[in-house]
Amino acid sequence: MAQLGEVWKISENGYKLYSCCGHTHTAIDAAVEMRSEHGWGARQVLGQVREVRISTYGPGWDIVSEQRPRTPYQAKLSSETSSSRVSVRRSASRRST
Fold it and tell me: Is the pLDDT of residue 71 over 90?
């Protein structure tokens, strides 16, 4: 309380580009870049990409390593789901087509 009115935390806020765990954003950005770089649509991605390897640091992987999410919330914490979704649908959102 000693710094009340003197220290403002609002300048420390960040913004997320995608509505999923921040640890998935780099994999999503890479998927967007890959698709854009090759000019691929969904069919080309499905026809050309056989495997994607995602690496991150230990604690981050512990958060985003859900391989078979059973709920929309778990999907937001899955690098695999988020990056594959954006590769095919151009969006990490479950509601996009």
Answer: yes
CB 73 within 8 A of CB 83: no
Sketch the domain layout of the chain as residue ranges.
Answer: 20-89
Mean pLDDT, the chain, whole residue set: 85
The DSSP secondary-structure symbol of 66 reads -
Question: What is the C-alpha separation between 24 and 4, in angstroms, rounded?
Answer: 35
- Beta pairing partners, 65: 78
| Distance set, CA 44 to CA 28, 39, 51, 81, 86 (Å) | 18, 9, 14, 18, 13
- The dihedrals phi and psi of 69, each to the nearest 5 degrees, come to -65, 140
Taking alpha carbons only, the member of 93, 87, 83 closest to residue 37 is 87
Q: Give me the pLDDT at residue 93, please.
A: 57
HEC string of 30-51?
HHHHHHHHHCCCHHHHHHHCCC
Among 97, 87, 2, residue whose Cα is nearest residue 45: 87
